[in-house]
Each structure stands twice: as C-alpha cells, then as structure tokens.
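URGENT: need a sanity check before tomorrow's submission.

F., can you look over the Sugar ABC transporter ATP-binding protein record below? I want to be sure the sequence and structure line up before it goes out.
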Amino acid sequence: MGAVTLSNVSKSFGAVKVIRDVSIEIAEGEFCVLIGPSGSGKSTLLRIIAGLEEATQGNVFIAENDVTDLPAKERDIAMVFQSYALYPQMSVRENMNFALRLARRPKAEIEAKVQEVAVMLGLEELLDRLPKELSGGQRQRVAMGRAIVRNPSVFLFDEPLSNLDAKLRSQVRGEIRDLHQRWKTTSIYVTHDQVEAMTMGEKIVVLRDGRVEQVGSPLELYDFPESLFVAGFIGSPAINMIEARVGDQGRALSLAGTAHELPLPEGYDLQSGQEVVIGIRPEYIDVADAPDVGTLPATVHAVESTGSDTTVICHSDMGQILVASKARSALRDGDQVALRVREDKALIFDCATERRILPRV
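Structure tokens as predicted:
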C-alpha cells in the first residue's frame, strides 16, 4: 500500500489551464474523495495520478516514490472506470484474471485469487458469462473485481456508480466501503454526488475551477465550510444564504431588503456597515408556534417529504428559505409562518471575499 502526494500539480490543454497548482496529501490506507462541479478538474486530476495524463508541472508521489514520469503500468495502481471498460469478448473470469495472466503469475495462484474475489463480490455464479449477459451492477462488480485481484498500492475510482440506478448505487456504494474496510488500500474516488462523498470519504477534497477549495472530513466541510462555495456545494437540502449588513452598534445583522434583524452571534468582531452573508443549515431553522421577537415572517411554497425527512420551502423578503426536520408537517402551500433561526449555528461570510469569518477563540 502507499500514500499519494501531489505537489504543485498543474495541467494545461493548450492555453486552457484545468488544474492549478494542486497540492494534496493522502495517507496510506485512506479513502479520499475528489468532488466538485463539472469542469472542476477532478477526473483530470485522477488521470494524472493514474499516469493517463501528463502533468504540465508539479510532481506525483506514490509510496514516497516520484512516479511523475512513469507510465501507468509501472505505478502499481488499479482503476475502476464509469464505463466499466470490460473486454466484451472475454468472460467474467477472463476479464478478472487478465492482468495476472499478463504478469505471468502461476495458474493456480490466478485461479485461487479470482475465486476468492468472485466469492467476495458475489460473482462466483457469473464467471463464465460475457459482459453483455450481465446487468449494470454486475458489470461494475466485475470491474471492481478486476482491480482487486491485482492487489495494487492504490485504487482509483472515476465516478464508478453514475450509470447505476439509485437503489443499486446505494448497494454498490456500501460494497465499496466494506471492501475498503477489509483491504485498507489507499483509495481515491471521483464523484459529483455529495451523498457518495459524505458517506464514503474519510477525507474530501473540494475542487473548483482546477483549484483546491477545501480539504477536510465530511463533517468538517459540513459544519465549518471555509467559503460560500463549499457551504453551498456541500449539504442537501442546500444551506440558506441570507445577505445582511452589520448594524451601527455592531451587535445585530440587518437583513438585506427588509426591516428585520438577527442578533450577531457571540464571539464576532465585525465593523458597522460591513456586508456579510449569513449561512444557516435548514435543520437549524424552526417553524415557531406564533410570531415573536426575532422570528422571520414567511409563506409556505411547498412541503417535500421522503417519509423520514421533511423539507418546507418558504418564500420570504430574504428570498427562499428551506426548513428541514425529521417531523412530518401539516403545513400547506400558502400558509403564513414565523421562522426562528438558531443564531448560534449561523455561519458568517464576508461578501467581498466569500470567505467565512471566524469568531474569536
């Protein structure tokens, strides 16, 4: 197994720079997720680690060895693609043992390894079938099995679940997580799905326009986003963002376009007149029993329920506000409500820099 380190890696395609001075350290045995919107550079970065793309500048290290100039086949990595990339003319068994045959491993060792992995992934009854005879989930398991039998230092996953339906995606996600717990092989996983990122990653790297926006654990990114971008990108339902201005006494936040104020949370030293954005996760807003001092008036636009979770979508003078709860709601479209914000859970961002303002320690 091996740690992976990227040092000042950049990548350009002609005049277009898609990766900009990226430095990341992924510990041995860690499960790291690269996430970001389309065009953020996450797949390109994965291909640079794999040796499928050449870095314009910077270095890639695997197990402390500089592999920047090594071809993919010499990097001791295994990659699982979104498209499965199976050989259509080969059986499941042949697809899984192909790399071992190329490496001229003993026949008995190859058979034992393939059988072990097939049992692990529930493929033992499918070993003689062709890929066209398999479902999407079965093909993805074969692709994973082909990677696992090689026992590489690093697993690379490039959006491997995006072709699966929601139920199967959840199932295979759990299988990948269980396999990582068993093998403890360093894994780097690219996705645009934040549910996958939050449920699978030990470390998450958020990318934006080819740059690292923030690195941290799932809960660090959720509770302490360093920028408006990360706050808005991580979390479902999405965080509420309310524009405000610091009042004359520096003790309250005047909500933009309204006569309403919220108390400034304790520990902040802000200048009067400073323009900020208040970030409030939907679960930290409650529907009050009645209007009161400090509540915000709103009108219910819609109520969405998944059975276990309820999201109330409200329209207000501050814009759309989402309220999330585990409780079911009797509210209906058009109801007038009063919303109470838990100020102690508010995140304050500077409008000019879009960076989070930290309270005093």
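My own read: The CA atoms of residues 162 and 299 lie 37 Å apart. The first strand starts at residue 4 and ends at 13. If you see anything odd, call me.
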